[in-house]
Amino acid sequence: MQQIHTGHCLCGAVSFETEGPLRPITACHCSQCRRQTGLYYAATSTSADRLTIRGEEKLSWYRASDAAGRGFCSTCGSALFWRADGAESISILAGAFDQPLGVGMGVHIYCADKGDYYEIPEDGARRYPGDDS
Ligand SMILES: [Zn+2]
Ligand SMILES: [Zn+2]
Fold it and tell me: Which residues surround ligand 2, an ion (CB under 5 A)?
């Protein structure tokens, strides 16, 4: 069975489609992800060759570190993608997808950096103080 998932930013200028199974959600609680999203970054992932992006001229990339880029819509500001330099995979914000997404929570990372204004939910996902390696 072909697994097609679609999604788009808040204004619709950037849309995308993925083909194939998606990774369970990684929630990143680092300060960069909290600043960008207001809470924490919740993203699935797929290999870049299984992702088709439309409206790429509206997609901007911001580098919060020298290791990765964060893709967002330059019109509405929706955070959409995260990609480590040279990586085959690309992370896609879970909230940007049309429902149903069909994957659950996988891991919480950078839990040691979480904000003091929320608790990490008891969702059964594994927790790591830093990255998940
Ligand atoms: Zn947009
Ligand atoms: Zn992060």
Answer: 28, 30, 33
Domain-wise residue ranges, the chain: 4-115
Encode the chain (133 residues) as per-residue pLDDT tens digits. 679 999 999 999 999 999 999 999 999 999 999 999 999 999 999 999 999 999 999 999 999 999 999 999 999 999 999 999 999 999 999 999 999 999 999 999 999 999 999 999 999 999 999 998 7
Was domain 4-115 assigned CATH 3.40.190.10? no
Question: How many A from CA of 55 to the centre of ligand 1?
Answer: 9
DSSP assignment string, 16-81: EEEES--PPEEEE-SHHHHHHHSS-EEEEEEEGGGEEEE-GGGEEEEEEETTEEEEEETTT--EEE
Do 15 and 95 meet the contact criterion of CB atoms below 8 Å apart?
no
**How many Å lie between the centroid of ligand 1 and the Cα of residue 41?**
18
